[in-house]
């Protein structure tokens, strides 16, 4: 494995759009070539090297390329977006679209991320040590095909719209979430280890939601059907099992309707 | 002899009434009387002939005062400010015609700006819901002639759209609704007892911020499932009664407003309202409509969707394609995150409507207002450019809240030398072309050059 090391040297006036910070783009390029890649600040065209010191070496393919950014990227968008392999590590915060449309490989942000982390993700792993803002693992506007695969783990808390239109994959929020979990979901798993305020599973067709803490307001479209023992993320626990959203359409399998599952930890 | 002009459009609220009559003086300069308009509509016509109307742009001086300048100078200033910025934002269009809106589109594309309209702080969430879930809507004419169950959810037309109820939704006698109000059941869902709620046959006083839960309850009931004893502060019996009313209606019409789009969940409140409308169509005919605020605020959505493929929050800074993602490219988010370095406020009052922190960020950079009137935004601007008032001094196409285009008239002449929004932005466009030494593809008043010939040199 070869590593490209980047160190932020200049903070942009506005926000930097770096579609290029991805092992797929860096693979096979020298640090000099990488520093000449285009980044955008609104309509201003700049080079990656204007904002980062770039050293180390890249692998021949994305798979063999690791990227390590040593510093704060609070004003850098699209880190690791569309990547298919390799890894990106940010030793600090990152802005919007971390791992957006990602297909493979791994991303590790040691700070917080802004909104749209893992937007329309298809595969790979994202690990955020801090908090995430809104739209974790959500679909792009108007797309009914949201996150399809991969894993997103937020060690802190997250805002609203987690896994909207989700079809597959796993999202784990270690702390609390605000509102709208798995809205319109047709698959996938969301685990909230803390509390959620409300609107869990609204318009949900299929999929699983686990809440370890409390749900302040339960939607009327969810019905409790019993308790179950489940082993989730290596922990065995007793859950109250709800099905829903009963207000939404549901497909049938062998003549029986399939519902979304909401597992709320039994106290 | 004073002249009576009929079938005049009202450039105020989203009801876009087009049955006004305006009496103007002999010389065509003064408005003597307006008929059929409501109080707020009438006011906009009389406001136009206010003797204190501005007739020249005003530029902020180093000592903080305003100095009147010529239009040429204001056009040059705006063109340069847009070109010098890395990410300018052009926002507004609550009160202008589609001609002006499309002229601004050309300027924004040329200047690589972000283009956004008042929907961003109003019915923008409705757009998001429509992208996600479709829009089973109709025209207000269909409402008038067919709807017998009217639901006002989180909107208060008695104040915001005064003639909406008399022209379209409650009182008018239509083809299948010949007994007017007697023919209709009016249901109001609002946490407050508004004047619309007082007028309604049923008022559901939903707990603030729990609209989504209540929509969910209606959907669950309509699918034959049980719901809890109480949802969103409303008793089960009441929910069942209203659900029954809707199911038995011949044509259910749901109107929704800011109570849905600007409480927690925003687009999801509208999204589930759309799902409910779809569900109701299993039982009867149902339709849904956003209570758009201004007379042509549906206009930018129409024009830009045609020009760029997106109705609002259109980021044209890439130069190669339009990018839209509200939450990122929406005015308030851009301003709050300090992602804008030049702001042009057109036909609205961002000074009054934006959060104070957003305005503080925008104020660090050139801040320009294009508006006929003095407003909070104009008073904090670096440059204020007055224009003619659409619907009073300038004709044009407007889109009513049901997306029906209407040709509005002009009733009096505007102040001499004051341009329309369209003229002003076309001149800014030409100035940008001069400054960037590029060929304009559009010159005001001339037929556009076909793309194929403009490329051949
Ligand atoms: S209801 Fe609206 S459009 Fe009609 S006259 Fe009043 S302000 Fe004008």
TrEMBL record, chain A:
Its EC number is 1.2.99.5. The keyword DNA-binding does not apply. Keywords: Oxidoreductase. CDD domains: FwdC/FmdC (cd00980). InterPro entries: Formylmethanofuran_DH_suC, Glu_synth_asu_C_sf. GO terms for molecular function: formylmethanofuran dehydrogenase activity; transition metal ion binding. One of its GO terms (biological process) is methanogenesis. The keyword Nucleotide-binding does not apply. PANTHER family: TUNGSTEN FORMYLMETHANOFURAN DEHYDROGENASE, SUBUNIT C (FWDC), TUNGSTEN-CONTAINING FORMYLMETHANOFURAN DEHYDROGENASE 2 SUBUNIT C. This is Formylmethanofuran dehydrogenase (Molybdenum) subunit c. It comes from hydrocarbon metagenome.
């Amino acid at each position: 494995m070869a590593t490209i090391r980047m160190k932020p040297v200049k903070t942009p006036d506005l926000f930097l759009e770096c579609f290029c910070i991805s092992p797929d783009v860096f693979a096979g390029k020298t640090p000099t070539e990488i520093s000449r890649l285009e980044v955008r600040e609104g309509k201003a065209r700049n080079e990656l090297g204007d904002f980062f010191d770039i050293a180390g070496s890249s692998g021949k393919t994305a798979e063999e390329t690791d990227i390590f950014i040593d510093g704060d990227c609070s004003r850098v968008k699209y880190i690791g977006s569309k990547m298919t392999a390799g890894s990106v590590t940010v030793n600090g915060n990152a802005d919007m679209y971390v791992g957006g449309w990602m297909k493979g490989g791994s991303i590790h942000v040691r700070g917080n991320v802004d909104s749209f982390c893992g937007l329309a993700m298809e595969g790979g792993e994202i690990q955020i040590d801090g908090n995430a803002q809104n739209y974790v693992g959500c679909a792009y506007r108007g797309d009914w095909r949201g996150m399809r695969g991969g894993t997103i783990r937020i060690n802190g808390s997250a805002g609203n719209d987690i896994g909207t239109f989700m079809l597959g994959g796993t999202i784990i929020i270690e702390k609390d979430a605000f509102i709208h979990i798995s809205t319109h979901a047709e698959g996938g798993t969301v685990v909230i280890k803390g509390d959620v305020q409300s609107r869990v599973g609204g318009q949900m067709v299929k999929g699983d939601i686990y809440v370890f803490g409390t749900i302040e307001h339960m939607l009327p479209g969810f019905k409790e059907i019993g308790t179950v023992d489940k082993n989730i993320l290596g922990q065995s626990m007793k859950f109250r099992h709800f099905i829903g959203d009963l207000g939404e359409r549901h497909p049938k399998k062998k003549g029986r309707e399939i519902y979304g599952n909401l597992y709320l930890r039994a106290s | 002899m004073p002249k009576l002009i009929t079938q005049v459009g009202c450039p105020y609220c989203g009801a876009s009434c087009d049955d006004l009559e305006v009496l103007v003086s002999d010389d065509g300069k003064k408005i003597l009387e307006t008929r059929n308009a409501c109080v707020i509509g009438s006011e906009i016509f009389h406001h136009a002939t206010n003797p204190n109307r501005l007739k020249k742009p005003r530029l902020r001086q180093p000592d903080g005062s305003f100095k009147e300048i010529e239009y040429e100078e204001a056009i040059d200033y705006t063109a340069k400010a847009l070109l010098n910025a890395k990410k300018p934002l052009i926002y507004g269009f609550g009160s202008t015609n589609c001609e002006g809106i499309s002229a601004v589109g050309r300027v924004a594309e040329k200047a690589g700006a972000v283009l956004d309209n008042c929907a961003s702080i109003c019915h923008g969430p409705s757009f998001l819901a429509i992208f996600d879930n479709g829009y089973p809507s109709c025209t207000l004419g269909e409402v008038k002639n067919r709807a017998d169950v009217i639901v006002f959810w989180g909107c208060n037309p008695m104040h915001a759209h005064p003639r909406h109820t008399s022209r379209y939704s409650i009182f008018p006698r239509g083809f299948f609704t010949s007994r007017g109000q007697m023919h209709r059941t009016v249901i109001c869902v609002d946490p407050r007892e508004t004047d619309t709620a007082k007028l309604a046959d049923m008022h559901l006083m939903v707990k603030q911020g729990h609209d989504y839960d209540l929509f969910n309850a209606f959907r669950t009931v309509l699918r034959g499932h049980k719901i809890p004893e109480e949802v969103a502060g409303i008793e089960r019996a009441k929910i069942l009664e209203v659900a029954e009313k809707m199911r038995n209606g011949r044509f259910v019409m749901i109107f929704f407003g800011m109570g849905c789009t600007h409480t927690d969940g925003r687009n999801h409140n509208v999204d589930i309202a759309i799902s409910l409308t779809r569900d109701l169509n299993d039982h009867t005919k149902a339709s849904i409509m956003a209570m758009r605020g201004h007379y042509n605020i549906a206009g930018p959505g129409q024009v830009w969707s045609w020009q760029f493929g997106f109705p609002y929050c259109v980021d044209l800074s890439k130069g190669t394609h339009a990018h839209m993602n509200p939450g990122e490219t929406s005015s308030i988010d851009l301003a709050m995150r300090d992602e804008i370095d030049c702001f042009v406020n057109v036909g609205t009052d961002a000074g009054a409507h934006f959060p104070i922190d957003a305005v503080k960020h925008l104020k660090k950079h050139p801040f320009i207002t294009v508006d006929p009137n003095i407003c909070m935004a104009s008073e904090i601007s670096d440059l204020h450019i007055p224009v003619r008032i659409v619907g009073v001094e300038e004709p044009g196409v407007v889109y009513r809240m049901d997306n029906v285009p209407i040709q509005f008239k002009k009733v009096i002449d505007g102040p001499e030398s004051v341009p329309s929004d369209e003229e002003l932005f076309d001149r800014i466009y030409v100035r940008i072309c001069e400054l960037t030494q590029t060929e304009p593809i559009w010159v005001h008043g001339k037929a556009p050059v076909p793309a194929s010939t403009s490329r051949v040199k």
